[in-house]
Amino acid sequence: MKEFKVGIIVAMEKELEQLKQHVSNLSCEHKGANLYYVGTMGEVSVVIQKCGIGKVNAAVGVTEMLNTYRPAVVLSTGVAGSLADNVKPLDSVVGERYAYHDVYCGEGLEPGQVQGLPAVFQADEWLLGVVLKACPIAHHGLIVSGDQFVSDVQPVIDKHPTAIAVDMESVAIAHVCHLYHVPMVSVRVISDSCSEGDYFAFWRVAAQTSFRQLANIIREFK
C-alpha cells in the first residue's frame, strides 16, 4: 500500500454510505468533532469524513482532517445543483475555480471575495490534471458555494455568470486548503437543476452511480 493519502470529504450521510461501499479495509475512528473512515481504494490510503452541510461544517471538517491525518490531497465529492443549461442531472462537474455566491465584504472587492483573500480560489494545477484525466467527459469550470439550497438560480448567475454548479461546501474547503497549501479539487455529480423535486428523485433513482468516478481518480495516484 502506498503512503500517499487522499482525504475525501462529503456533506451528507447518504453520500457517505454510498462512498463507503467503494472502500476496502474500512475502520472507523473518532477524532475531534467528527468520525473518520480510514481504508484503501486500490493501493491508495484514503480517509473519509462526513463534515455536515454548509460552509462552517465544511471548514471545520477539512481543518480537522488536515491537522489530524495530513492527507497529500483533498477531494470534495457529493452532489451539486446545475447552473448551466448544458449541465444535466447525473453529469459530473469538476471545479477549476471556486467562489462564494453569498459573501459581500464591501465596495472595492469582487462578488464573493473575503478581504485579504482571492476573489476566486484556483484548483491545484497538478491535481486538476489528474482528476480531468480520470473524468474526461466531466464539465469543468467555476463552482460556487453558499449557505442556502438554491431554488432561484438567477441571483447566483448574476453574480457569477460563468458558474456551472452550486453547492454548500466546496468553496469553504477550497478556502481552507488555500490557507494550508494543500491541493484540493471538488468533483460533484449533478443531482438537480436547483429544484427540490428533481433533487429527491435523484436519490430515489440514480444515486448509486454518484461515486464510481472517484475510483477512477484514486487509481491515478498509484
What does this structure look like?
- The chain is α/β, with parallel strands linked by helices and 222 residues long.
- 31% of the residues lie in helices and 33% in strands.
- It has seven helices and ten strands.
- The protein has helices spanning 13-20, 55-69, 125-134, 154-159, 170-180, 196-205, 212-219; strands at 2-10, 24-31, 34-41, 44-50, 73-82, 92-100, 121-122, 139-145, 163-167, 184-192.
- It has a five-stranded mixed beta barrel.
- Helix 3 crosses helix 7.
- The protein is globular and about 50 Å long.
- It starts with a strand and ends with a helix.
Task: Specify the overall morphology.
Answer: globular
Structural class: alpha/beta
Largest sheet: 5 strands, mixed, barrel
Terminus-to-terminus distance: 9 Å
What strand line-up does the widest sheet have?
Answer: 5-9-8-6-10
Mean pLDDT: 88
Query: Using DSSP, what is the number of strands?
Result: 10
Could you give the order of the helices and strands?
A: EHEEEHEEEHEHEHEHH
Radius of gyration: 16 Å
- Report helical residue fraction: 25-40%
Percent in strands = 25-35%
* Spans where pLDDT lies below 50 across 5 or more residues: none
| Tally of DSSP helical segments | 7
